[in-house]
Each structure stands twice: as C-alpha cells, then as structure tokens.
Amino acid sequence: MRNGLMWLATALSALSVGWVQSRSEAATLPEPARPPASCPVTQPPVPAFVPPQPYPSSAPYGGFWYGSDDLWTLLVRRGTWRSLPLDDAGYWQKTFWWRPGYSGSADPRPKLRVTGRRLDAQAPPFEGHRATNAHHRDFGGWAMLVGVDVPTHGCWEITGEYEGQQLSFVVWIAE
Fold it and tell me: Of 140, 133, 135, nearest to 108 (Cα)?
C-alpha cells in the first residue's frame, strides 16, 4: 500500500495531477487524444464553475474546476487521462478534491471516498486509496488527495463522497 507521505511528496513535486510528462511542461497540460464519441466525458460547465474564495477562480495547469460550492475537483479539458503508470492493480492516478474550509493540518486523513465504475464494458469497480491532504498555492491552499487504481482502460465514471456531498465525472482512460 502506498504511504500517505509518499503521496503528498509526489503530489507536491508533480503539481500536475498526473498529467505533466516532464517538469519543463509544468506550465500547461499536454493535449491528449480525444476519447471516442461513445464515452460522455465531463466537459467544462457553461458558465464555468468558480469556487468560493479564497480558491483561485481559474483552475491551474490548463484544467477546469468541476463541481459545486460544497465539493469540487480539477479535470482535464478533453477528458482523457493518458500515460498513466500501469501496475498489477491498474492505471494509477491522483485525484484532488476541495471543500470550503477544509484544512489538511486539522484533518490530515479526510473521510473522502472515491469510487469508479466502467461505463463502456464489463470491469470490476474500484475504490480509491485512503485520502490524505495536499497543499499548494496553485490550489488556493489545502486540497484532499486520493490515489486511484483504475483496473482497465476505457470509459469510467469517478465519484467522490465527502461529508454528505457527492460529485461524479466521466473520464476516458487511454491505453
């Protein structure tokens, strides 16, 4: 099982939510290939979701904020997670989640539950690892961090649940 401190160190060093291929590309996210039309990946909302203060109104790294004033996350514009590390458990990715007033120093192991289910074929569902915290000025302070092992490539609905709030999005996992 991955160590919570290792997660935090990885998250803070990458600051890319798993999307940046190298440190020289850290200013913007690479443009991934488009998912198939059969996968209804989550698109930026119109009008754009703007989190409450003190969080930044524009999402970092070329992504977009998605959610509500009670729970939100950071997503890639084209809805594809690509070039993810693959091991026996599946494709590994970090997911970041926000809630107003969340403090990682007060709650270093938030009770955020992240699950996933494949939409385009049969595959076992998954549950994310135990949540930890992350902090960076690009995020507007504290965020909740959950690593997930997605069993296969394909079209996946990812759902986060925290303190009575639920948020789902759809993403394409590229091979």
Answer: 133
Amino acid 40 reads P
Nearest to 140 by CA among 7, 51, 19, 26: 51
E strands in 56-130: 64-67, 72-75, 80-81, 86-87, 90-98, 113-118, 126-127
Query: What's CA 163's distance to the chain center, in Å?
Result: 18
* CATH architecture of residue range(s) 4-16+33-173: Sandwich (2.60)
Q: Nearest CA to 99 among 162, 44, 56, 145?
A: 162
List pLDDT tens digits, range 116-148. 999 999 999 999 999 999 998 888 889 999 999
Per residue in 152-165, pLDDT tens? 999 999 999 999 99
Distance, CA of 134 to CA of 67 (rounded, Å): 19
Q: Is beta strand 72-75 parallel, antiparallel or unpaired with respect to 90-98?
A: antiparallel
Closest CA to 44 of 67, 14, 22, 10: 67
Alpha-carbon gap, residue 138 to 91, rounded angstroms: 26
Report how far apart, in Å, the C-alpha atoms of 102 and of each of 27, 52, 58, 109 are.
26, 12, 19, 11
Domains of the chain by residue range? 4-16+33-173
Identify residue 63 by its one-letter amino acid code. Answer: G
